[in-house]
């Protein structure tokens, strides 16, 4: 393995970890910097619907609204394996996610485990996420934690 391969592997792992870290800490401005100008987000295996292609800042604004009703989230991302070809890469990772909202009927937690699949592009000196696919293996808890409106 060449030195540049190791640098790329580390940088890809870092941006994937930053993505989860910034979501959980509600650091929306920093989260924008983890995405390419346009990002495809595909949660269809988890929640149906269609994959969406949005500018990175619009995707982050959507998550700000959707996750803003929650009292906390924690995403644990492990086992990142990346394959780099020039200025593009694919990566897979294991993920465990807990989403908590207090004072909702049906229980305060919704959690799941599965995998993430990423496509990334090198933009300048940094890797950016251009596609994110969530593939659940299991889901438990109260999807009602996402319900909008007063608690």
UniProtKB/TrEMBL annotation:
Residues 5-132 form the SnoaL-like domain. It comes from the Bacteria. Gene3D superfamilies: 3.10.450.50. SUPFAM superfamilies: NTF2-like. This is Nuclear transport factor 2 family protein.
């Amino acid at each position: 393995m060449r030195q540049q391969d190791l640098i790329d592997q580390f940088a890809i792992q870092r941006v994937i970890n930053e993505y989860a870290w910034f979501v959980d800490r509600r650091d929306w401005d920093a989260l924008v910097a983890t995405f390419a100008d346009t990002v495809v987000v595909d949660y269809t295996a988890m929640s149906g619907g269609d994959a969406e292609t949005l500018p990175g800042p619009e995707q982050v604004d959507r998550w700000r609204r959707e996750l803003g009703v929650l009292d906390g989230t924690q995403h644990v991302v492990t086992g990142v394996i990346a394959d780099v070809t020039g200025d593009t890469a694919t990566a897979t990772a294991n993920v465990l996610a807990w989403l908590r909202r207090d004072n909702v009927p049906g229980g305060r937690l919704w959690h799941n485990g599965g995998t993430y699949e990423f496509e990334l592009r090198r933009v300048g000196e940094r890797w950016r996420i251009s596609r994110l696919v969530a593939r659940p293996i299991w889901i438990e808890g109260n999807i009602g934690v996402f319900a909008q409106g007063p608690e």
